[in-house]
Amino acid sequence: MRPARLAMLLAGGLALAPGMGLAADPATGDDTPLARLVAAYTPVRTLTASFTQETRFAGFPTPRTYGGRLDLSRPDRIRWDYTEGSGQQVYVAGRILTVYAPEHAQAIVSELNSASDSNVPVQLLADVTRLEDTYRAATGSEPGSIVLTPLRRVPGAPERVTLWLDPDTSLIVRVLLAVPGGSTSDIRFSDVHVNVAIDPARFVFDPPKGTHVIRAADLMPHPPGGKSP
After folding, report:
1. What pLDDT, in 10s, does the model give residues 6-41?
2. From CA 143, how far away is CA 130, in angstroms rounded?
3. Is the alpha carbon torsion for 113, 118, 122, 123 positive or negative?
4. pTM flag (> 0.90)
5. Which of 28, 37, 96, 122 has the most CB within a 10 Å radius?
């Protein structure tokens, strides 16, 4: 699983819950992990965090490790910077996804859509209060954990996402992704800060001179004698 793809899958996971304070749903008194997650996320407008990521590919004994930084501005601006294990940068601006590989002086720009494995976390980011419109959520076997199972299968997307919340703040401190075929990715977050000032320019991809920018739509086969849909 490529770091860029994992970055998008994880972006939604972290965007779900970071916030401040441990609280039950004031309307229902519900104190389940899911209710605390929603209450913690509600006031969040911006977020920064460091992350480490260990990916195990089915059939390979040695995992791959990555690390870097995440910046988030609700409702739809995300940037992942890989600083360990990869040099990629991943940007989301609305429905536009840009993956920049500086070592290859190349950027691929695509649009998120219902067929994209990146669409699931974007749905989560849009409104955590509607989480159960997309996932079946259940309290996990470990304290403070939530197991999410998609209501609808999306090719390439995780078949299960497990979240662990900080017992004091309800911030997500760990995400475990299980994808079809048996591969997993285990992500830990640290130095999480919410509602801090983030320069909007960080979410804008400005290709360095010499960067080859590729539109994913141009790589798709076009109908003979016509334009691509």
Report:
1. 554 454 444 433 333 333 344 445 578 888 888 887
2. 23
3. positive
4. no
5. 37
Alpha carbon separation from 140 to 21, 77, 133 (Å, rounded): 21, 30, 19
Under CATH, which number does the domain 3-219 receive?
A: 2.50.20.10
Return the SS3 of 163: strand
Residues 6 or more apart whose Cβ sits within 8 Å of residue 174: 163, 164, 186, 187, 188, 189
Closest C-alpha among 2, 1, 6 to residue 118: 6
Where residue 93 falls among pLDDT bands split at 50, 70, 90?
A: confident
Which strand (E) or helix (H) includes residue 185?
strand 184-194
Which residues in 75-108 are b (16+ Cβ under 10 Å) and which e?
Answer: ebbbbbbbeebbebbbbbeeeebbbbbeeeeebb
